[in-house]
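Running this now, will post back.
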Amino acid sequence: MLPKIYLYNSHRHNNMKSLITVFFFHILFSAYSISFGHEEEQRWILVKGRGVVESAADLAILKLGVISVAKSAQLATEVNNRSMKKIFQELENAGVDEEDIETINFNLKPQREYRKNQPPVIVGYQVSNTLLVEIHDLSKVGEIMQVAIDAGGNNFQSLEFSIANPSEQEEVARRRAVENAVARAETLTESLDTEIGEPLTIQEIQFSHHPQHNRRMMMADALHAESASVPVHAPQDLITTVEVQIKFSLK
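Update: finished.
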């Protein structure tokens, strides 16, 4: 029996050698990447912290204005303008600085009457003008509201109590939020035989500044007040709240 003869193909051999080499390095690189990932993996804990500051209000923000209705747009605007000018003057007479009065909305819209099987008909026009008034003397809030009513104000939208410069309260609340987050992290890890390490990330996730009692709304029914001024009671405290989220490494 004649022996089998194998022909050597150098080109095919080189191609196969190259494929083996590429495959080998691919496996080696994959193994290295997985190992690297395990080495970089860190243990961590994510906690939230909350800081609260209570402080007295020193600013009232009042939104009020006039709504006027007339047969024509021109007449409705003229009537509204007269009332607004009187309100401006009376507010200044009551001690409100001009820089604390700001027009925030003016609206003119037709009033339509709808009849059966007929297109709507314009029967008049409504003009509304709204002011934002900042009052720094809280003892005069009710008096100023009554002054505006007597001058023709018939659209009272809201009354808020706030702090004129709240940056100090905000800073204290943030500091307390971070301290609270650290304390929570330490409490959670103390029974696990581990300690928190350096903070990896920190984020402020919520900020609010509001009265202890919800926002008070003074609507147009204040027109029926019989006293010399609208009775107003400012909240005793305002609440500034900050929440943070911190990711700590674990030792």
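Residues 4 and 112 are 106 Å apart (CA to CA). More later if anyone needs it.
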